[in-house]
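Open question from group meeting: does this chain pack into something compact, or does most of it stay loose? Before anyone orders reagents, we agreed to write out a predicted structure and look at it together. Recording both the input and the output here so the notebook holds the full record.
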Amino acid sequence: MCDFVALFEQMRVTKLDGDLMQAKLKEVKPADEDKPKRAAKKPTKAGLPKSEFRRPRLHSGNYPYAPRDAGTFGAVGLLGAIGRWANEAHETQWADRVLESIAGQPLYIVSYDKISQVCFGHHIVELAMNSELSKMIDALWRETKLYADLDTPMTRHDSPAYQLFYLQTSRFLQSFSAPAFADFLASRAEYPSELRPLFEEYFMNQCNIPIELVVSARALGQHLNYTAYRAVNEDIAEDVKNRRDVIRKAKAKIIVEFESAIMSAKLPEDMTYRLSERAGRLTYGELPHEATPFIDATNSGKIELPRAKHLLIAYLRLRSQKAENPDTGSENQDKTVDEAANELSDLIKD
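Structure tokens returned:
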């Protein structure tokens, strides 16, 4: 405990300077009387800066790299922040020792209205020690867009739908269990590429699925994701207003159709047939041969059908690691599928 307190204090001292109860206000220059002024809704006194409400810095957390929604990600965000700070401050040995001491031990969270207890396994500690957990939480907040919210231009992080998604995500990160992962998948969304290490950690280490089958499933999921993108990209004109948003909505509808085909399948062969049929109708192509190991393992029962469904849906929703630029989306999607194919080829050779 003393080691944890000392590390936490070192994080605060090195990254958070000044009084956390003070707010940072923007410097407002006095109005220039020579320039024409816009008609104001309410009369203001000349030369006085506009008053703006600002929360104190403590609202963003009393430690560096705190998650934006500390109420939901709280303890998970703290573990991620420790790993990220240690990586930047070159204090990895100290942080590793503290994080290892937390694994499997109960932590008490004291808030204004209750006292709760959480416990983290070695899986989350490993992600934090690799400084990946903090990036995942930040990406989930910034880049995840629920399919049900695609018509809304601004993301309302405080809406019930997003709060439920963040809560389900936090519970999955804590327990790493199959029921928690099913709840995490219940909120349909396109996941940022930063979640790829999370899925690999869960499926390979928690579900004990061989790496070559996980890579094969990723190749199939990314192929279906690219198929949806390619189908809508070819149908929507280049001069359409807000083309990126239009493509995103249309692509989400196709991905939902793929997910419905996966979840409604009663047999592994039925799932493969439905996906092949729908993908073929869109692009007149076949499923990639890199998906063969995953399909064979599912058909033979080596991977149980419910688990195979979750595995495929997770990678179907995962955004391409290089598809951040909408202007080169098609090329980047191709590269991601090829990367999975090359990785699978290397594993087979080994």
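Observations to bring back to the group:
The chain has two domains: 61-190, 209-349.
The CA atoms of residues 122 and 197 lie 15 Å apart.
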